[in-house]
């Protein structure tokens, strides 16, 4: 991008830069989930805020620089963005099926409410998470505090997967304060069922490795229930290797289950 955007609009710019659809309709809520922050009041009150394409405003570069322009706004409801063919100034007119738009980014404090809801959904759908359905009370305030504290620590973070404007997955990287263990971190990955099979978990792992390398973390560790073949295949394909079994470490439906430990050394 040639224009320096406010930090809050960079995720939105990244979202549109990865889009190829002729038309994209996003609710105000979805736009804020993409950004991880609230839109300004002017975006809710004035259609003109969305239609601006001149300085001193800069926010519009988030979509204009990717070839999109706002064609319809329903205040506090949705915004329609359409790709313009740069050769003739008209819409692309493509009849191709819309493609999923995936954005992977680190969590901001504004993501707390959506992340808390996402964790609850993932835990209710999975048989292999540490917490069972409705077992954990995760308030927005608690999640927000965790996001802020982890960002300040520099060795832990939460990475989000946002699919078509909706939070669908997360990956937590939990590092260490102790210098002797500062080179390693534990990861925890959760993904909604309806978002599985789209390469999202793989994308989360890739981002986790990139972030970890930047922070000087050279070893990632994860534990999974031994029967969780899908997770085992995911991690092994990503280069994780088994390092042992923790016997009867999980009680699921009142039955003992082993955990498999895996780790990966980052180049």
CATH superfamily of the largest domain: Gcn5-related N-acetyltransferase (GNAT)
Detail the poorly predicted runs.
none
In N-to-C order, the SSE pattern is HEHHHHEEEEHHEEEHEHEE
Q: Per DSSP, what share of the residues sits in E-state strands of 2 or more residues?
A: 25-35%
- CATH level-1 class of the largest domain: Alpha Beta
Q: Number of helical segments?
A: 9
Radius of gyration: 21 Å
Quick check: average pLDDT? 93
- Gross morphology is elongated
Describe the sheet with the most strands.
Answer: 7 strands, mixed
Quote the CATH topology of the largest domain.
Answer: Aminopeptidase
Give the terminus-to-terminus CA distance.
30 Å
Helix content: 25-40%
Supply the helix-strand structural class: alpha+beta
CATH architecture of the largest domain: 3-Layer(aba) Sandwich
Strands, total number: 11
Query: What is the count of structural domains?
Result: 2
Strand order of the largest sheet: 5-6-7-8-9-11-10
GO molecular function, one term: acyltransferase activity, transferring groups other than amino-acyl groups
Organism: Planococcus halocryophilus
Protein name: GNAT family N-acetyltransferase
Keywords: Transferase
